[in-house]
Specification:
Elements (H helix, E strand, L loop, with lengths): L3 H17 L5 H7 L5 H13 L3 E3 L7 E3 L21 H4 L33 E10 L4 E2 L6 E5 L1 H4 L4 E7 L13 E6 L8 E6 L3 E10 L2 E5 L8 E3 L4 E11 L3
Parallel strand pairs: 3-6
Antiparallel strand pairs: 1-2, 3-5, 4-9, 6-7, 7-12, 8-9, 8-12, 9-10, 10-11
Helix pairs in contact: 1-3, 2-3
């Protein structure tokens, strides 16, 4: 599933290739999608490439090839989007965990997790399953309370918690696999080395290990095929810290 920004960029590239055979420049992409920097475009292109929608052609400037279009795409037409409206989690104060919609699992109830190690049917604590979180390239964040799962109290400890389904393999060397359910304690600060839910530039949520050096914030993968990403302190908001994991076999 593509995010709205990923789809907008893909449609823009497709339309320009259809019109002139040349994809738009990074500056044109940035202006059309109303992004603040070209680094955001770089992340979107990387995400589209890793999801198999486009391919960057070597040894050619601005050379992008469309490999496929989204199934829901109605056609190649594209018009530049208006400035994006604030999402509900940006408007409302207080705790609004920004995560990825649960997709096919969003209709599951706590009963669906009864067979999971650590999930129990009696005497447990209900934790809201908010949706999916990217353990890979960050993907646009939305909020969706998909279901509730039951967790043993000793997994949780004090504080407010929520659960997320993991999408991607960038934390696999930390023992976190795609499809796992991670239990997150809500908090806005964390220590070096903690695995956190990070909200990047107010719109992209990802699960990564936190590294801080001076004013810089690094989001570190636990898979050598993913690079560590460096951000300024105002680009990353900590949503919570990993405290537990549930896996279905």
């Amino acid at each position: 599933m593509l995010t709205s920004k990923q789809k907008e960029l893909l449609m823009l590239i497709h339309a320009r290739l259809q019109e002139s055979g040349v994809p738009p420049s990074f500056d044109e992409m940035k202006e059309a999608l109303d992004l603040k920097s070209k680094s955001g475009i770089h992340r979107l292109i990387t995400a589209l490439e890793e999801r198999g929608f486009i391919r960057r052609l070597p040894h050619r400037a601005r050379a992008l090839e469309i490999l496929k279009m989204p199934e829901s795409s109605a056609g190649p037409s594209y018009s530049a989007p208006a400035a994006p409206a604030e999402t509900p989690q940006q408007k409302v104060g207080g705790f609004q965990p920004s995560v990825i919609e649960g997709g096919g699992k969003k209709a599951q109830s706590s009963a669906a997790f009864a067979g999971l190690p650590g999930a129990i049917t009696g005497g447990g604590v209900g934790v809201p399953l908010m949706g999916r979180i990217a353990a890979g390239v960050p993907i646009s964040a939305i909020q969706n309370h998909a279901a509730d799962i039951s967790c043993p109290p000793d997994m949780l400890g004090p504080g407010e918690h929520f659960a997320l389904e993991v999408k991607g393999d960038s934390m696999i060397d930390a023992g976190i696999h795609e499809g796992d359910i991670v239990i997150i304690r809500r908090q806005e600060t964390a220590n070096n080395g903690d695995i956190i839910v990070a909200l990047v530039e107010k719109e992209e949520a990802t699960l990564k290990r936190l590294r801080k050096k001076g004013a810089s914030v690094a989001l570190e993968a636990a898979n050598p095929k993913y690079e560590t990403r460096i951000f300024g302190p105002d680009q990353v908001d900590i949503q919570g810290r990993l405290v537990g994991l549930i896996r279905k076999y």
